[in-house]
Amino acid sequence: MKLLHDTNSEVQGMAMKCLGPLARFVEVVYATYLVDKLLEYIVDSSASKAKAGSPENLSVKAMRDVSSLGLKAILAELPPDSVKAAAVTKCMAPKLIRTIRVTKAVGDAVDLLIETFELMNDMLNRVGSHMTDLYPEISDAIFRQLPSSSALITKRAVLCIGALGSSCENSLFIAMVERALADLRSNDSRTDTIKTGVQIIWALSKTSGHRLAVHVEALAPILFEYCTSENYADDEELREHCLQALASFCLRCKREMMGFGKTLAECVINSARYDPNYAGGEEEEEQEEDDETGMGDDDDMDNEYDDEEDYSDDDDNSWKVRRAAIRCLHAALSVELMPREYLFRDFGPFLITRFKEREEPVKLDVFAAFSELLRLSGSQSHQHLFHSGAMHLEIDIGDAMAVDADEGVSDEMRPIVSRGPQIMRTLKKELSSRSLKTRIKTMALLRDCVSTMPSVMTPLIGKIISEIEQGMSDSATAMKTESLLLLRGMVHSGGANGISGHLQTLIPRILAATDDRYYKVTAECLRLCGDLLISFGRASSEFRSLLAPFASRMHDAALGRVTAQDQDSEVKEAALRCLGASVSFFGSELGPQRVTSIANVLCDRLASEVTRLPTVRALYAIATSESAKVLLPVMSDVTMTVGGFLRKNNPSLRAASLDLLATAPSLPPEGDSALIANISQLVTDSDLRLTCMALQLAIRLLRARGAEVAGEMAKQNSIYSRGLGLVASPLLQGKSVDALILLFRTLAEINQEPLTTESMLTDLMSLSSSLGTSAVTVTGRASALYCVAKCLVAVCDSADPSSRAKTAEKIVANLEVQDLNIRIFSVICLGEFGRSSVTAKSEVERTNLQTAIMAALDAPEAEMRTAAAIALGGMTAAGGASGIPSLLNLIRLRPDQRYLLLLSLKEAISYSNSVDLAPVVSILIPLLFEEQVASTNASTAAVNSEGSQGVRVSEESVRTATAECLGLLSRASPEEVMKALVDGTSSERADIRASVASAVKFAVSSSPSHRQPLLSALRSSVSAFIQLIGDPDVQVAKSALQAVNAIAKSQPSVLIPHLSATQQFIFARLVKNKSLVRVVDLGPFKHEEDFGLDMRKSAFDCMRTFVSGPLCASLSLNTLVQNILVGLGDHADVRSIAQLILATAAATPDAPQLNDIMDNIVAALQATFNEKVKQNAVRQETERHDDSIRGALRAIRMLETVPEIAMNRRFQAFMTNVVRTSRFLEKYEAIGRSDVEQMTFGNMSGAQRGVSAESDIAMTDR
What we know:
single chain; 1262 residues; mainly alpha; Leucine-rich Repeat Variant; disordered C terminus; TATA-bd_TIP120
């Protein structure tokens, strides 16, 4: 504290910097002492008594400045929720309030008030929760200073009001808004009061937009009036403030501002044209509209433009109005305040006319707004390729020939696309601007235009080639980089045709820039060279010949960078990519000396850890080209080195190495053993992508070497043994399964010791037996058995006819053994035989297989019958158009096996094409409903006579199978199926209504390629399915909720017109219905059966989908959260979903709105922490309670990340008194941000996780 008075300013500064850390570590009494002393220096009135300019006056001012900085440092260092922060706040706040209230803004007191307001603002933002009781006093003191004549004081007072609004009580917030409204409605002839009111609204909207949303309807018309009224046309400051407030409304109160979209558009367009001191604006825009199809006279434009640049008026502030208007427009674009077609139509042409804005700050904002508009088109597919991360040769480069101007252009983009020449003409002039910043931003905007509208902009690029050349020669690094990025964008979007006519002038400059001192420029040049080589190399011979003379120079430039020792890694990566492209596409033009030397250079680069990956990719590019033979001399070393990379813990390097080895021109035999050993390490289920690539490489080796490597692969822990282990993995899926099947097929085709077809068939049969005793789950074991069966059939396909017949006989014989798993596997194999066109070639063979499968349908075991049903469905699908009618006859003839045959039908529909299904859709739909009714009637009769629970399970199974079949049929005839489903919603039978609701879920969850036609039919009838949520039958309501959830995930736009009604139906299903609860007296204790639990879980799942998806923007978040709070006191399963919804809601842009209902949220969360576990609770009950606590803590952690909520007094008290107590603090601190973010992603139900209905049913039956 003494050193703060030191005459040396550097000593003063260092002492001031020590205050913050010192206050953090000393005790509370010393911290408050520091604050007291510093405050004395600030509010000391001796400065005002001293003569202005005197040493005493200057000394006091200096101490005030140092003390103010010291207090700010202390506030920044103290933890906001600490006891010390509370003590410091209690010490500072009353003195600051008193100073603000009694000080008059005259003379040196202005500086005192400025410092005081800045400190108050820091306190409100950092430790405002400790002074909530003083908020009314603070508000009153601040409003007293608002009429001050000092703009600096008014500005800081307004900032304090904004900070105050973020955490004050709602009554005080409303009072501040009303005072601001009174200022806005003031009839004072001076506009200072109005300006202050606008500034207050702007500040409150920035810090508390969610709270101000309810007042937007009253505020927005007033602001529009001040922006457009002739009475205030000359008050530029007022108009600027109004537009700033409207921009803040757009960003933070989008839903409320959507109703003012048209008014806002007119307001910002008129305000952006406001330029009273320049008369040429309107005529110039009209001239632009007339000349938009041509490039105009450049000389006339030069003269006109020079006049604009020479014009200046230091007293002209109209540009601030235009800038505020453009920023408001930008805000409207960024939140898509209106439908896109209106944004493009209303704002696109207007922004283009504003490119010639004469004030640079406004012009740059115009460019930014237009880039935002282009972003909305979603067409900038190549934007990511302009960054340094795009190093792979296999990038998306445009075709060599220009596309048609209308191709790929959406209707909404046409107002901009049609003005392509006008855009190019105007931006060409901006590239000649005297301002470096303008030229750089113009280049960036041109790059966005080229990537968004390549077919329009690419033919016009020739108009700006000279400007691009100047940009590459500019002394500014940023200008060089932007010019190179623009050229890369042209190559990516327009292909070789875009710049083919300008290579003679561009290439020398590009090559010269490869020697630039700044490595970023050099790397960008080399990337551009690589793109040019790839694009022209893939083009026709005509285009290829244009670049051929420069290929060797590009190659030499890249080679020099690769071989140099002191190069940045980014430069070397780009150079290696360029080398790979030059040899791949222009090897014949490089000359034999260059081509032959490149292999050794690349081989040397493999030894460097930094350049391994780009070198492997360059080698891969050469290996897949006509120049592959240049690698032959070094393939032995390359194979050994790259094979070793397969053991590196770098997935990208492994994948690139596998690509190279799979396409290499030759693999030397002497490296086979080591290569196979390295490949074997990748045959696991930990990374299926790499596993698939490794298996494909092994297949290449087998086809190239045959029996020579088969023995090596047969060794223990080699590819074959690891492949057998992989077959049994429940994680195996997709292309990995296909690659594994192909491996077994290839080995069977070789059929050499020790891997003969007989030995492989024996191993696979043994593997199926071992799966029966493994610890794999039922679902996982079934998946593994199907994979084993596919591999077995693949081996049989490659075997001789006698071996196939022998294997089939053995499998049929195994149907009679005692071991259930062997019998199930046999049935699965028979089904796979039936699908195979090789194994079951004759009609007799297929008949025999079908007979065996039909016999298995009568087996006593449920799993056996399910496997037989799926096998029968697979055979039916393989039979084509004649298969399904025969299965329908079976369904009619065997009513006792209705469920199993429906499973067969589902399998057949899944694997049949739409052409085969279309003729039988009209037969299948009524048949499925008939079977559903018959099943329900039979179940009801059985329950009445026997009271069998198993019968009810069977009824549920049939209903699920029926719904799946109906959903899958929608692929073939969506309109017909949808009409039948809508008719089913009005059925008197609850089982039919439940089936049609479930069918909608399965239909919209089908593959995207078949989804769109169905959704077109669904849009007009979705309300019928929404109505089913209110059905009195629980099963119907649950199925309807699941259907709505599926629609919300796959195509949420279908629900938007019906969202309000849907919410009301779902809200009613969130509450526990006591009439659905039955208490069973079991003697020592009572057991509660809740028949509505599953329905409530489905309702909460719907709400979570709503809040985590695009529908959230159309919802009232407070209303949704208020309704789900009931779930925090429900069953543990429901509670976990409600906690997830709360955490997800806290991650949305509208999360600050939750501050208004924080009292209810805290009360609901606190109930979870107040629950006690019974002393005699079992372990399951204890674990559920702990899970509930952790779920609540995760939700709280997410809520705490919202600044407005973190400042809420009730929430802070809850954190202090409950969460941060010794009982829960350790658990709370253990929850990381990543855990919370992971929690906000899908709590998927069984169907969404991919668990098939038949597997669940089989387990239940068993």
